[in-house]
From TrEMBL:
It comes from the Bacteria. PANTHER family: PTHR31375. The keyword rRNA-binding does not apply. Pfam families: Beta_helix. It is found in: Secreted. The keyword Kinase does not apply. One of its GO terms (cellular component) is extracellular region. This is Right-handed parallel beta-helix repeat-containing protein. Signal peptide: none annotated. Keywords: Secreted. It comes from Paenarthrobacter ureafaciens. Its main location: secreted.
Amino acid sequence: MLAEPLLLKSNVALRGQGAGTVLKAGPGFLSSEGPFGGHPLITTNGANNVTIAGLTADHSGDQLDGNTRGRLSEFLVDVRHSRNALVEGIRTQNPFTYSIAVVASSDFCVRNNQTVADSSGSYDQLDGIHITDSHGGVVEGNTVDQGQGADGDDGLVAQTIGAEVFDVVYRNNNVRGGPHGSGLQLAVGKHSIRNITVENNTFRNSPNGIQTGYYDGFAAVRDIHVVGNSFAEMPGPWLTFHGELQNINVADNLYCHTGSLRLGDGPGNKAVNNKEGC
């Protein structure tokens, strides 16, 4: 049981022995705050060369009322202002905010984790793995299920608020976006999103597949490669890109029981060899 957020120092590895190692927000957890006024269960808070691995992170959102000040200021597992951070083999449960977030960081790896959002009528904006203002990272082999309850939002996100997001790979993830979100959203503000690779992922049972969204700005989206993914059972389009686009490559994807492909015009944009089939 944690009475306050767990803050990692540089060069520290926090390793459990698997899902049976549980870090859980205790009854008085919300009386404390993280460094940025939120309620992270675990945060790196500027630490470099850190590992969080092999455990269950339980935010106790089913027992605590997480609708409090700072709910979206920090996140359940919060990698922030860090370099060379690994989040691996983490199972998150009972979130009241984003499950795993990487904020203003570089050289990160989020690998082989499981997130779930199963609450209904309690929270909003329950994203799975959310990358903000960061670069040089890999999001790989994760199982993201934001659709077990009615509160879930985007499965995967790349978002710009105060800086670009670039040089990030999303690979081999199995993703269900929640009722309020997408499988993957590129959430654009005043800073661009560029050089993003989305390859060999499975997106299923989401309202839609991959989309661009715009918040407080309309910066460019460029050099995006969406290759070799599968999309199934979604009423909306399996891909929707609009705005200032350049070099968007959508190729060799498989889609089944989905809406159409919508790719806006832009220099170097192309959609080739995408096939319908289950």
